[in-house]
Amino acid sequence: MQIFDIHSHVLPKIDDGSQSWEETMEMVYQAYESGTTDLAITHHILNNADYDRENEILEKYEELKARLANAKIPLKLHLACEIYYQHDMELNHKISTYNNNGKYFLVEFPMQGIPKFVDEKFFEYIVDGKVPILAHPERNLGIMQNPIRAYEFVQRGVLLQVNSGSLIGRYGEECRQLAINLINARLVHFIGSDGHNTTRRPVIVKDAYELVLERWGERVTQMLFETNPRKAMRGEEIRIPEPYPVEPVRKKSKFGLFKRLGF
Length: 263
Hints:
This protein is α/β, with parallel strands linked by helices and 263 residues long. The chain has one domain (4-261): TIM Barrel (Alpha-Beta Barrel), CATH 3.20.20. It has 9 helices and 7 strands, in the order E-H-E-H-E-E-H-E-H-H-E-H-H-E-H-H. The protein has helices at residues 21-33, 54-70, 118-127, 141-145, 148-155, 164-167, 173-184, 206-234, 254-261; strands at 4-5, 38-45, 76-84, 104-108, 131-135, 159-163, 190-192. The chain has a 7-stranded parallel β-sheet. Helix 2 (54-70) links the parallel strand 2 (38-45) and strand 3. The longest helix has 29 residues, at 206-234. The chain is globular and about 50 Å long. The termini are far apart. The relative contact order is 0.16.
């Protein structure tokens, strides 16, 4: 079975991910050694001006493929970006959608909440044939405080990607429990590492893969780690199960939430 990781920051000196080619090669080897077969590279696009670095990203992406071939590491790469939500974000660049398929794009919200009027904007994209994949909703304070919003997004055609680290408790108990609740409610469609380095945020999904397999079984595991990601990379239609309203996580103090989210 193929194991996809659709969210990583491994190219050197592009964002807050890898800072050298040595670190990049350690990260991709770590991914391969832990069982990942397909890795999507999704560096931050914080505003439209960041697309000025698109050629640099494309060149380093090709160099990484060559380095993998020379090192005989059979890890298959895919390319997109992680777009910070803004009302005028651009999706017409080569790195905007996965493998430039013009359909699926990875988007993140500010950690502190859900942007205004995002439902209407997402609806416009979906009508236009472009499908938002919302990165790590379980770490978003607005969704943590009001998880029914995740259900509303999926009902309207948005897909959700949970971080592997959230499932194993790397970001605190609230994030872990919300990630579990989202899967229970059939609201999760992908798992990604969101890997930035080899230590605190590694490019590893193995632990989450094993947890999902043990807790939800082979069918859900295959859907999250192979079937849906493969279709997203190819720009093919993804059919999702009917979602359920998600159970809220037992609330703790706002200070505790901010502390665990890293603010």
